[in-house]
Amino acid sequence: MPKFLNREIISYLKMKATHIEHIGIAVKNLEESIKYYENILGFKCYSVEEVKDQKVKTAFFKVGQTKIELLESTDSEGPISKFIEKKGEGIHHLAFAVEDLSETLPEVESKGIQLIDKAPRKGAEGLSIAFLHPKSTFGVLTELCEDKN
Amino acid sequence: MPKFLNREIISYLKMKATHIEHIGIAVKNLEESIKYYENILGFKCYSVEEVKDQKVKTAFFKVGQTKIELLESTDSEGPISKFIEKKGEGIHHLAFAVEDLSETLPEVESKGIQLIDKAPRKGAEGLSIAFLHPKSTFGVLTELCEDKN
To answer: Does B43 sit within 8 Å of A19, measured CB to CB?
Structure first.
């Protein structure tokens, strides 16, 4: 049983996510899916960016406080290709904005959550990011982001 | 080719989603997953509600402008059970807040999007809701919500 299920540890809780920073969506074709988000839902794509170490091309939209990040794989062996192969196109991850990622990660790990990234690394839009493993977050690939800009 | 890919129709666009109303997440066990969202991410569950015609029990959290809606099936033949069987626990749908759902639905349909609900119906928290089919929204089961309260 993960440690966080133990009510006694609640009092040690420090982490507070302030809002949903973005929702990552895996798509096969960035250009076609941008048209859907622009022409049907009425959002404006404000940035297209390649993140080489993730093997993706991304497109960003702002929807109120939250961004939508469309992800197209640039490599058939990349994580987004693998995801689409297994589950089809769709929502890939959920990202929460936090205030101090370097402090948050060891705290979360100490409560029994499996980290994909033990230390913050650089993500799209210059954010400092880290992923939690979906095995310990009830199936949701969860990203924590800190905006140091 | 869906009609929305035709650039000529852009000028007819009326719909504008103002923000992400909620993110629906399919879970096997509502009680255990509530503990994760409360004790790790630091959110407070403010409501647990059963939606009988959807065969689910739901739990709500507020995260900035957006809600997280956890969904546990109350019936092994219900849509959430089927989803988990096929894809595992995880993000199930994405809901956008719109201003006039009755006007929006025929507009969206006229642009080639397949509707699951041809007319608004009542969802959790008393919202007026309708779903768009993931086949025409690049794999994302998409809900449109209007708050008439």
So the answer is: no
